[in-house]
Amino acid sequence: QCRLNVLITNFCSVSFFPQKNGISNGTLYKKTFIEHFEQAPMYVAVFTFVGFAVGTIFGYLRDFMRAWGLEKRNIAAEREQQKDFVPLYQDFENFYTRNLYLRIRDNWNRPICSVPGPQFDLMERVTDDYNWTFRFTGRTIRNVINMGSYNYLGFAETDVNALKTVTIELKKYGTGVCSTRQEMGTLDKHVELEKLVAKFLGVEDAMVFGMGFATNSMNIPALVGKGCLILSDELNHTSLVLGARLSGATIRIFKHNNMQSLEKLLRDAIIHGQPRTHRAWRKIIILVEGIYSMEGSIVRLPEIVSLKNKYKAYLYLDEAHSIGAVGATGRGVVEYFGMSPDDVDVLMGTFTKSFGAAGGYIAGKKGLVDFLRTHSHSAVYATSMCPAVAEQIIRAMKCLMGLDGTTQGLQRVRQLEKNTRYFRRKLHEMGFIIYGNDDSPVVPLLLYMPGKIGAFARRMLEKNIGVVVVGFPATPITESRARFCVSAAHTREMLDTVLNALDELGDFLHLKYSRYSKSSHPELYEESRLELED
Amino acid sequence: MAAGVGQQWVLVEMVQAFYEAPAYHLILEGILILWIIRLLFSKTYKLQERSDLTLKEKEELIEEWQPEPLVPPVPKDHPALNYNIVSGPPTHIITVNGKECINFASFNFLGLLNNENVKSAAQASLKKYGVGTCGPRGFYGTFDVHLELEERLAKFMRTEEAIIYSYGFATIASAIPAYSKRGDIVFVDEAACFAIQKGLQASRSNIKLFKHNDMADLERLLKEQETEDQKNPRKARVTRRFIVVEGLYMNTGDICPLPELIKLKYKYKVRIFLEESLSFGVLGEHGRGITEHFGINIDDIDLISANMENSLASIGGFCCGRSFIIDHQRLSGQGYCFSASLPPLLAAAAIEALNIMEDNPDIFQTLRAKCERIHKALQGISGLKVVGESFSPALHLQLEESCGSRENDVKLLKRVVDYCMNSGIALTQARYLEKEEKCLPPPSIRVVVTVEQTEQELDKAASLLKEAAQSVLN
């Protein structure tokens, strides 16, 4: 029996007691930095494993029945002429997809047919054969509250006045560019956009790319190569991991947001040099994100910058989710912590989330951006950004900076902050386990058990609310969650509707695992001292 | 009681054996026992790893280490820093660096960049959906326009299913690693474009390059692989094999010999991935690409990938093929799952462009005629040779004789290009990342033919190039 305890403890130490975050050096922070990663009670872990075990057993049973012809095979099959080729997929690779993901797959890839604003219209989709195929009934579910799209500042809108300049540019330029940046694809619109991005961030120069994912995967290999060291956070996005792998440098992972782990890696790297030859490293670069989209945590920027200065490393900050969403005027985590953009060597971000467009940018010193203009894979081989999309970014940025003559931009940032605080506070009071920083608009709500993933998403849709649920492999296998993205366009009524629905559903599905709801331990939850003027 | 007797008896036997054993045996066993006792009581032994450095020495090492600068300085006259800035849309008449020219540099083969119907379709979509999709395909980023575009593409190419990506480069670079993993074998043409090279690098498979368009070389490699397989049949049964080729090669303008490839496919049991960025909307009677050009059944090709940035004058890319193959990318294509989806206005523009392609099948014939015309007109320029098929809309003009160094060749070609630009024809050099390409093509000028260019303009361009070559190269 004590062996069983040790086993569970070992499993839990892998998933439930992660050594994330470590101990923070509070003196570097100008305001309180509160993050929560509460662990669930032990019975939750047990039931989660039981749930996966049941699913796996039934999966084997179904595979057996399909192999013996007792059950119909619904999957597409290889061509007759190619049956003797080496099989393209191994059966065990797809086991999880076939037997676990397929059962609840109606909760993903839901098609919509309106602008992804605070409310949208879903196309009604039914399945006659347990999720193997879908059929559209032709009806639309109207005005579903959108808690899933990355629309932090509410710039995904169809208001005619707001899109006036975009319409004009679309008429003038058309949709394509048909050439790469270095050949005939640099339009005056791109130059205008790059100047504006540099001004917005307060840096010397910037360069824009057509896709956010590709910005990382094509520029990291240009910056580092063999003989360099990349220190990357445990929970970095796939694009950062792909870029790091394609570069050919050595990669070492430090625990999520844990400064002691990072410092240890830095010291070991400089003292011992490259493995086996002990030559000095050419350069060391630290890859972190501003807000981590699955955890809702904000990077500990002041500590990382002090470490980077002490050990002469370089910092690459991916602000995909944090640009526009945090900071007093929406300029990202650098402003949030009151630091200067010169502290970060490479500022990277995307325009998909807060600006309602598409694409990415890299900003920093002029030398860096000039190097990227000449050596980035995207500048030489990939088509440049569509000019109409560039115009959307320009108008959204001008609105944020106040250059259009209104205070609408600042109002949006304030509204987002208010909405985030309110939403998180209420969820804590209700007793759910929420991860992440109090100021992050990404709110992961933990579900843990696989059965609840499907139940939660389907029931919320019945109540006319669209949520995003995530399970393995995007999250650790025992920590499935629902992820809410708060938007500045959400009104108080919409948030209240969602909160009431969550309350009901939380009781029905027994999701309120938190042992500390605000009413019982008020001292754990200090309201931030940043009072907002209305 | 009986156990006690049994035990005593065993003990007696043991003592007897002790007395009967030879002396060397006892001595050896004694030494071994002493050795074990010594090991048990000695201190644990750590691997020597410079852990004997003192704290002061460590601090000194940290103090002394100097990294390289983050980026090396770039010389101000680097050719890529002085790029062309286009004011206004890059259509048939293009304003480059303030000067109006006829556009021979943008891949706008079917002239759809300035098409009014395409623009109004995009406008209608903008009014309805806004600009961005604010999410990846899995999380409310799937719009009805995406589904419609996928259906239309599948129907147009006469395959079962199609999948769209939001960036042309990412299409083939995400498709290859979704199927080919570590340990699999990929035979790829030497002149494959950079996106394919990156896809192969991300897949970590064994890459075997065969000489450009040389089927004999490919067959030799396949035969070698066959003999390898016979040595280890168990491993061979799980190693997947692929051939990756392009329809019309971007770097050389050649066409790939698809019928022979199909024969090799069935003989050696390898799957074919075809990259049709330049041939989609160009080859074939209806613009369906190289399979229509050669009259091959499209199901014989496992995966066709193309980008929508050339003929369709939009942004993004698509893959099409049988559902068995394409469906896999919906969960394992990295550029599909982890990236925001294509903005709806671009998808609507692509649908309208497809409509135009279906309604006007004679533009392909017109385009091919224009390509033939300029191909003939450019023959015989002293100092420059034409590289590419006669029906390829993207040609290269390379120097017949190199000056010695690549840098000087590039400078010389720049002068030719500048001469043409000053006289009203916009051209560009083909750009490559010199250090990153596996097989770097020689420097060249890119000449792109579009359906909008009139015959006079084609002739003017040819004669201007002749003049430029005369004055610069002689």
UniProtKB/TrEMBL annotation, chain A:
UniProt record similarity statement: Belongs to the class-II pyridoxal-phosphate-dependent aminotransferase family.
Signal sequence region: none
Subcellular location: Endoplasmic reticulum membrane
EC number: 2.3.1.50
Gene Ontology terms for molecular function: pyridoxal phosphate binding; serine C-palmitoyltransferase activity
Gene name linked to the record: SPTLC3
Keywords: Acyltransferase, Endoplasmic reticulum, Lipid metabolism, Membrane, Pyridoxal phosphate, Sphingolipid metabolism, Transferase, Transmembrane, Transmembrane helix
Record field: transmembrane: 40-61
Annotated pathway: Sphingolipid metabolism; Lipid metabolism; sphingolipid metabolism
Designated name of the protein: serine C-palmitoyltransferase
Domain Aminotransferase class I/classII large: start-end pairs: 143-502
Top-tier EC class: transferase
Any one GO BP annotation for this protein: sphingosine biosynthetic process
Pfam family of the protein (one): Aminotran_1_2
Membrane topology reported for the UniProt record: Single-pass membrane protein
Requisite cofactors: pyridoxal 5'-phosphate
Gene Ontology CC annotations of this record: endoplasmic reticulum membrane; serine palmitoyltransferase complex
Originating organism: Catharus ustulatus (Russet-backed thrush)
TrEMBL record, chain B:
The family this protein is said to belong to: Belongs to the class-II pyridoxal-phosphate-dependent aminotransferase family.
Superkingdom of the organism of origin: Eukaryota
EC number of the protein: 2.3.1.50
Gene name of the record: SPTLC1
Residues that span the membrane, as ranges: 23-41, 162-180
Enzyme class label: transferase
Domain Aminotransferase class I/classII large: 100-463
Pathway participation: Lipid metabolism; sphingolipid metabolism; Sphingolipid metabolism
GO cellular component: endoplasmic reticulum; membrane
Keyword line: Acyltransferase, Lipid metabolism, Membrane, Pyridoxal phosphate, Sphingolipid metabolism, Transferase, Transmembrane, Transmembrane helix
Protein name in UniProt: Serine palmitoyltransferase 1
Cofactor annotation: pyridoxal 5'-phosphate
